[in-house]
Write a structure and sequence with these properties.
alpha/beta, six-stranded parallel β-sheet, 7 helices, globular
Length: 222
């Protein structure tokens, strides 16, 4: 009987240890997370990748992120978009798929900057700040991912708010999986925030975001 209590206690402690990081991320980012309709103005929207189908189309979750980003642009709440995805394999170009989708959705090509080395949330945030010179940003992702994304971008030195897409009515199984995956992912996020590892590829500074913002201002001036 006593052994059973010990095992139960150990399991409770393990559950608490796993729940603590994700609970902390939710608590500390609550004031900076918004729905699409509530999002404040920021110069740039950072759109995080979420996979590409074998046919070269964005997954439905990624498509919804891109739709949200396009709406932020159309409503004037961001001036430029930075799409950050994985292009680590010759025949897998997440970033270009995101770019093509936004252009087809009516976002001017000159308003979209492309990051081809966004291999993780942390790397996308670090590169947005260190490579593309972004200072203030709206990060766009699904609601399950948003607390981690906001916290990591903040740790990377960005002034950040986040817009979360609630895809329950469209992709409920994927959302359930996403929330479950956030438990171990939150532990890794805390590690990244403390250790702050270098991205896989940092590279030289790029001016694509600066050029996109300048193009927006030129359009308004003209």
């Amino acid at each position: 009987m006593r052994r059973g209590w010990v095992v139960a206690g150990a399991m409770l402690l393990l559950c608490a240890a796993l729940a603590a990081p994700i609970g902390w991320l939710h608590l500390t980012t609550a004031a900076d997370r918004y729905t699409l309709g509530e999002a404040p103005e920021r110069p740039v929207a950072l759109v995080l990748g979420a996979g590409v189908t074998p046919e070269g189309e964005p997954t439905r979750l990624l498509e919804r992120r891109l739709e949200a980003a396009a709406e932020l642009y159309r409503s004037g709440r961001v001036e430029a978009l930075l799409v950050s995805g994985d292009n680590s394999q010759e025949h897998y170009n997440e970033t270009e798929v995101m770019y093509d989708y936004l252009v087809a959705a009516g976002v001017p090509a000159v308003k979209i900057a492309r990051d081809y080395a966004g291999f993780s949330t942390w790397e996308s945030c670090v590169r947005a700040r260190a490579v593309f010179g972004v200072e203030s940003v709206t990060v766009v992702t699904q609601t399950f991912h948003l607390p981690r994304a906001v916290a990591l971008c903040r740790a990377a030195g960005l002034e950040v708010v986040g817009v979360g897409d609630p895809a329950w009515e469209d992709r409920a199984p994927a959302m359930l999986y996403g929330y479950a995956r956030e438990v171990p992912a939150s532990v890794k996020a805390l590690f990244d925030m403390v250790v702050q590892p270098e991205p896989t590829f940092l590279g030289p500074q790029e001016t694509a975001v600066e050029e996109a913002l300048a193009a927006e201002r030129s359009d308004e001036a003209g």
